[in-house]
Amino acid sequence: MAKGIRFYEAGGPEVMQWESIEVGDPGPGQVRLRHLAVGLNFADTYFRSGLYPAMLPAGMGVEGAGVVEAVGAGVTDFAEGDRVTYTGSPLGAYSTERVISAEHLIKLPNTIAFDTAAAMTMRGLTTSYLLRRIAPLKAGDTVLLHAAAGGVGLIFTQWARLLGITVIGSVSSDAKAAVARAHGCEHTIVYTREDVATRVREITDGAGVPVVYDSIGQSTYQSSIDSLARRGLLVCFGTASGQVPPINAMELAMKGSLYVTRPALADYIADPDERAALAGELFDHVGAGRISVEINQRYSLDDAVRAHRDLEAGVSIGSSVFDLESAV
Question: At what angle do helices 174-182 and 151-162 cross, to 10 degrees?
């Protein structure tokens, strides 16, 4: 019998329950997938807490990698035995098996292990669109990245270095600063004891940066705005500390005709061709070893409560995955 995490009400980590689940056969356009690794993302906590609405009861998780076990009618791009990964599909990744629409799947090259795929499909595709779609960055540019030692952060800093982009990374501790620097972050700011905007101005000789990438939200919004150069862009792609405050349009004008955007990964992988292009570049870098994906936290699926507590406590570094071999 397949097993998985379900939750029946929004709330803290304790609302998640480890249960036996009925999977069934795939319908038209679907496949039955056996998970070999499942990704743990901060977005998962948004669904669990109710910040992102979910029709309850619901499964948990939006990222996984595994092997296709059966295909439904009309599925032509995938076959039994195919190695696949996915992100952004309906909730339900925290499971040993699931039925899922084939349109969500991405074929996984043999050069990339299942746990690596689960650790980087969402984070890597997020980095891909942040660096390759959001702003016309060029070699020699300098940007500010919050949470530089996180899962997205460590992929971002390595990829930015390949593109010749200098990254100023904000982190919460000296230990995380060391990790960020080891992955290509040129400058680090420990925000618990340093003023981020002041340090950014010092590093850039007063100019500020053309782009700030902010996945933290409420607590970092003002420092992000204050770090931007004239006509700079603030990219708010996460809300780890809460929603950003209401945008004050006059403040944007007064601080240099600034721009703010709140992108979502779903809108950059909705088109199959664009998703294939973003994934192809990501897989090429990872498969060739130009970008490494570090899995620093591993959990069993039945330990999802502890995993969410660790994630929300900010103790995680790099990527986290659920190890299906440890599930019972």
Answer: 40
Question: By three-state DSSP, how is residue 84 classified?
Answer: strand
Q: Looking at 261, 284, 316, which one is the last position of a domain? A: 261
Residues 209 and 322: their CA atoms lie apart, in Å, by 37
3 state SS of 108: coil
Alpha carbons 290 and 297: distance in angstroms, whole number: 22
- How many Cα neighbours within 13 Å face the side chain of 64? 32
> Do both 62 and 14 map to the same domain?
yes
Among the three residues 236, 261, 286, which one is the final residue of a domain in this structure?
261
What 8-state DSSP symbol labels residue 208?
A: -
Which pTM was predicted? 0.89
- Place 327 in a pLDDT band, splitting at 50, 70 and 90: very low
By three-state DSSP, how is residue 107 classified? strand
- Give the C-alpha distances (Å, rounded to integers) separating 80 from 8, 36, 107, 118, 322: 33, 15, 12, 20, 23
The answer on 151 and 55 residing in a single domain is no
CB burial of 258-291 (b: ≥16 within 10 Å; e: otherwise) equals bebeeeebeebbeeeeebeebbebbbebbeeeeb
- pLDDT for the residue numbered 302: 94
Name the average pLDDT for the chain. 93
